[in-house]
## 1
Amino acid sequence: MSLEEPVVAHRSTPSGEPILEAADLYHGFDGEAVLEGLDLTVNAGEVLAIIGPSGVGKSTLLRLLGLFERPDRGSIALEGTDVWATTDRKRLASRRRVGTVFQAANLFDASVRRNVTYGRRIRRSWRDRVRHEIDALLGRATVDEPVIQALETVGLADALEQDAASLSGGEAQRVAFARALAYDPDVLLLDEPTSDLDPRNTAVIEDAVRAARARGIGVAIATHDMHQAERVADRTAVMLGGAVTEIGPTERVFESPRDDRTRQFIDGELVY
Amino acid sequence: MILEIVPLTPSLLEFPFEWHYVRSIIYVSLYVSLVAVALSTLFSLPVAMLVGFSEFRGKQLVTAVINTGMGLPSVVVGLAVLFTVSNQGPLGSFDLVFTTEAMIMSQFVLAAPVITGVSLAAVGSVEGGVRDAAYAMGGTRLDVALVTIKEARYGIATAVLAGFGRAISEVGSVLIVGGNIAGPDGTSKTRTLTTAIQLEARQGRFETAMLLGAVLLALVLLVNGILVRLGSGSGTGGVR
């Protein structure tokens, strides 16, 4: 099965249905509010762009959606279950259905293979992990098919045995994307994944985003690049003042925003 | 004029027990230092991880205490350990005075801050983004800790070797708690390379002292060679 193939039968949420929902989120640091009553829904099999000025809280929102930290108030639900109202074990299981790619690649000091197999490795039992490590030391380890497919999606299948430190910035970011795809999450959160990349690497990442959508993955991409939102996103949410001021089909949001501040932001007239 | 030919190398035949003597000293030195460093590593690594990973009030003070420990005067450590194992001390009933166990204790106290301090710096130098990546992919706290150890592996190896260097070249505390004892047949009981050098030099047996010094130097050089090798390998991986 190719990653581009729109076969999503194994997913419990059909495409277009809500999979990750944030409701009435409040969060801040050192007494300063960043998110103030934010509501957002990510649907399965769609790309949602989150745009807004720098410092508006896009990264904070993605960290909350990725379950890195607990919101001060409000709820985050995966397939209708409030993840902060469950046990640690269930929350870990929820967290393992969400992948995050950051602005920096943050690759491990290891080979591309070790990086991309990591997510799959840690989902195994300790016994399997030890066995896998022994096999790797003896040179007997085989590479899982999804790992190869993920690297093919970002055009780096040939780099499997390459040292991650030897990759260019763009290649490293593509490996970071493949690393998240390899364990087939239900939701993929991308925090400005192409802000440091050249047009070619950006195009590769955007193609990979479309491939993830085709597989039924719900993708949320925080970006300050409105053109990128127009290129890849089915829906776009505009964040201003710690909340979502407008959300809807990308074309409609950009062509005829209903909120006045959103229109000013899109037209570049908003002073912030 | 009659020229006397002086051999450049000391004649070991002058000391019938020499090799046995030297071997037993090397054995005691390595045994005490390796066991002390192994125990220090088992203790120091979790402490470094705990301090490095957690944010708490007084963290800077704890770090300062650890760094201060790196410069602990060895004779003071020896004195404290001697008191602890002496009849009046809390471990008096174990009869540990002038034993290799007491020497291991003192070297543990000396090596642990070095291994903890250098490991803490190594763990702290691992970028937060790498830890975030491990967590983002579904890693547990243990998984994230393992990733951090792996990323800091060169620094941690340096810490262990630095601890070994501190232990093997130590003289003050092992002299106090070990007593520098060798049996009548020349077998070292608690005599290490450093304490033996001190004794041999004091008694005018410079050849033996120099031989032991050369062995100690070779060991320290070996450790430093490994350190340099590791340093040059950093950033290129290791086991992939």
Note: Residues 18-232 of chain B form a domain with the MetI-like fold fold (CATH 1.10.3720.10).
## 2
Amino acid sequence: MLLAIANSFWMPDLDAVVAIGPLWGLAGTIVAIVLAALVLGRSAAVSSVITIIGATLTAWICFTHAPRVAQSAWAGLAPAGGSPMLLVDNFAILFILLICLFLACVTGLWMIGASTNARESAAHLRNGPEFFVLLVGSAFGMALMVSTTNLLMIILAIEMASLPSYAIVGFQKRNRIAAEASLKYVLFGAVTSALMAYGISLLYGFYGTLDVNEIGRLVSTELAATDTPAAAKALISVALFGLMAGIGFKISAVPFHFWCPDVFEGASIEVTTWLSVASKAAGLGLLLRIIAAVLQPLAETFDNPLSTTVAMFAAVTCTVGNLAAFPQTSVKRLLAYSSIAHAGYMLMAGAIIWQAKPGSDVANPAFAALIVYIIVYLFMNLGAFGCTALVYWATGSEKIEAFRGLGRRSPLIAAAMTVCLFSLVGLPPFGGFIAKFYLLMALFKSNLVWLVAVALLNSIFSLYFYSRIAYAMYFADDGKPAFSVPAFGRALVIAAAIVILLTGIPIAGGLIGRANQFASHLYPIAARTTFAEPQAAAAKDPIPLAARSAP
Amino acid sequence: MNVNTWLEPIVFFLFAGVVLFSAIGIVLTRNIVRAALFLLGTLGGVAGLYFLLMANLLAAIQLIVYAGGTLVLIVFGVMLTSKSPWVRFAPSRSEAAAATTIGLVLFAALAKIVTGIDWTVAAHPADQPATVRQVGNLLLQQYLVPFEVASVLLLVVMIGAAYLARPEN
């Protein structure tokens, strides 16, 4: 009888266990750090090396997975008939790959900081295993965020990404600013989490399913129908707003951005770098999945309230971020507001709903544009924060004054910083221009001309405050002596600058094509009810050639 | 005559009375610890209502998480942050007016929404099989992955909390 019970139980099959390989990689890294601390003693060096190995290994698993999921997405890890818990598709693989590469870069940055004996690294050095368990834990949460469309998993993933982040922001327990930043982050996160859980419980109560795709279809029919009572429409809006609050917090969209400048200023610079990119990338990945599910069924009507709402949020976020960056004197704070502004640019992509022609697999151009933007943004921020970190470790200050005369004192770092800054503005020879160009083209094609105007105006605003740093570096020399920076640190920021230059021109055409390929899976998944379809999806050509052409 | 048919309303009104009385108590009392105690009555009364609906597991969770955990957290929060545990609220006129307005608007909106929606209602709860067993089955089958992810989450959070709480030497 026991055997009969055991047989009646659902167990994940081997395929499913293999398919979520990248997640095993990150979870395994956490276990390895804890076990190594038990066996080899508490050593920050060992933990950081394990983190780099784990991140690289996970990135490698993503690479080996990519061809396997190139033809068809996989969704599952639930008994037959249940809604899939985890998805493994090109989109998820790409984001996990980016998160892992970035995790390795941030750990590298941490190692440089530790070698310069910066004041901040003391706590990190003494408590290495804890720091890296928390860092990898938040990476694991972000990887989960981009690989699910189940509301329960979304809550867990966002908490998994957030809770360790609160702890690493306040990791220097003796530092008042860090403690204050951490507390603000926790309180803000708790409120938005509560809003999100409330919204999700409303959606679940209303529709009786946790599957975002299913809910998206139901929401769109309810919103489109004329006989839906106003109260129901209000309830759907409240629920969607709650869901968006949770994600808006992660990407620091206005009005959920108040934590961002304080946290970026209070946290040590490696943590700031990590949060500025990884947390945003994961949040945007999740947002795209939800928007693909909820907005796609509304594609018949280009002019719909949901799209307009997202567009308004994007425009406000972008403008507030850029305007608030004006008076900043701390480069960390300035980059924090810049990251809010960039969240706004990226959020604009969320407003684009694309009417796919019947029977075609053409991806929404917004998704391809956003993927290019996120890749370029990753390197721009890595470079900008990397340079700021090197200057901070050498001079002990992160104010704009610390950058004075950098063009003479450390020409290579100044050059790398200049590339990153002008790429952040979106000026032509750099990757930032290409990213913004595709985004604006996608907006233009979707008749969101006013949003194009907002983005262009904001780029002009932003030129002013980014050039203040460039001005300090080249035209405001105060005669302080030159300094040398660790060779590995120099290599890291120069590599970031070179990637920005490369994405700027020669390989950009290839980049958007690849991005299109990665984005093409979003819609088939959004349109899918069960996960029995991969074979059917594999049969047809995944991306028609026309879809690859750049806009 | 079935004992349930006349006992059920009595028990319902008993618990509902406890919930309402305590809720009003929370609003009216000026003493923060007393408010926490009234909150215990509200949360416990809601747990009683869950028991009445045969939602045994939900009732147990309500008692453990809210009446147990959250309440202890509130009391600890008060004890740790205020100079004296006998802090008294003294809301100003304008604060009271603002709170009343927000409360009324929220209540009106919720009342309109809740009455305006056709909620899906399950069959009579007593006819359903035991919830604990169902939840157990769901946790280890349909929700196995969230269950495991939650355990990783707890591990990481525990490490973080232990680090933050440990005195630096």
Note: Helices of chain B lie at 3-28, 32-52, 56-81, 93-116, 131-140, 144-165.
